[in-house]
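User: What would this chain look like folded?
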Amino acid sequence: MAEFKTDIEIAQEAQPQHIRDIAAKIGLTEDDIEYYGKYKAKVDYNLLSTPRADGVKPKLILCTAINPTPAGEGKTTTTVGVGDALSKLGKKTVIALREPSLGPVFGVKGGAAGGGYAQVVPMEDINLHFTGDFHAIGAANNLLAAMVDNHIYQGNALDIDPRRVVWRRCVDMNDRQLRNVVDGLGGKANGYTREDGFDITVASEVMAAFCLATGLDDLKERFSRIVVAYNRSGEPVTAGQINAQGAMTALLKDALKPNLVQTLEGTPAFIHGGPFANIAHGCNSVMATKMALHFGDYVVTEAGFGADLGAEKFIDIKCRLTGLRPDAVIIVATIKALKYNGGVPKADVGKENLEALEAGLPNLLKHVENITQVFGLPAVVALNRFANDTDAEIELVTKKCAELGVNVKMSEVWGKGGDGGIELAEEVIRLCEQPNDFKFAYDENLSIREKIEAIATKVYGADGVDFAPKAAKEIDELEKFGYGNMPVCMAKTQYSLTDDQTKLGRPTGFRITIRQVTVSAGAGFVVALTGEIMKMPGLPKVPAAEKIDVDNTGKISGLF
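Assistant: Here's the prediction, encoded as structure tokens.
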């Protein structure tokens, strides 16, 4: 029996190429990159100002998935593996991914750089501090928070209502203790006492604006629009009125440059930015995606969680705001996860169960319908294969997807790297040449309520939407202040098509309840919150951090 190796062991045994050689594969010279050691580099975004010399129209492939389950799906692993497979097929391929957040790395999720033989490296660096981008984003967020409170302390010329300061501090760690705090204690010299709180850095609007910015000037303009508080007359107060945008942008001038790394097989990969997908738009930076398209002929990227969140936001927010258009979509699923959706406990998903599989398949089919019918894009289902998947189970999934005109291709990239994704990559190449009827889920000129209803009914399959009185009042206020023409970013559980994470499969006869609506004016969207979505996760009973260690040579263990 072959020896089992963990993701970190596989990554540490690899012999990566020097980053200058990876850069050279896509036409970058040493003058175009800034070294962060031997295996990481930042790339100058000013290169985007020069058109491609070869006239090639690159293909953009989006990798999404079914609703995530404890059984695992493998979206990042598939993204990396397909990229390697495309490279093996002779295509000039670049991958674009999000950076992992430290909090989940030390919490439940562990490492997030792919898995098995479909990983990006250096895996330990990517999962930990990487090039420091997230620290810079946190610093910019907290600079703004400090300037808001200082403005109040120094006389409050803008008449900010301290009870309506909406800008929170952030830290890139799962720390439930910081969700709600009281600060400014200790007397007048220590600030104005008020209720406050922390978000995790990846939920900060600075992160979302950073990932949608097209340059330093655009980033500065986005920061100036951020709503930080409301004055005593009920009007929004922005970061621009606090004069914080210049200093915030200065902190991020280097962070805005995309990070270049490589896969285990030497395919170039940009890893940059990482907004949460259940509170923000869940995509890597626009800068990284455009850089990948500038230098590659085929670009594989991903969007967070299932297609109801990640792909919807990739299309309705990122594509709408930037003009990007996917040429093909990969929808990742596993037979184990589909049986879990069909009611099988996690411990039993390895056993053949055609009845449960048939009950759970509608979840996958809804995501397929969303991609092909709601958004009008060609799709392929990537079935991550496990040893105990039976032929009968694979045949059932293939048959049901074929009824929707979509092919199923086996993915074995975890164990075989690019060789395990050749058939999937060939189907992706075929799909990229197909005509498509790309469209958004809603028109941007609709009201905020109508946009939310369109997402809920078309993408989730809800019967309708109920707005809590507080949310209804907030919508009216936001439209009064001119924020009604923005796309909507739904904050919803990733585990279900509904706003109730316990409802698996493809529920029917449900409604979505909106409890709060806020504006992320710098990012350029309105956020509609459902259920109990929080911006600051907590650590589990046994956090992954308990297993992570380092020896006296600096070798890290326990990252998986």
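The chain has a mean pLDDT of 94. If you want, I can go into more detail on any region.
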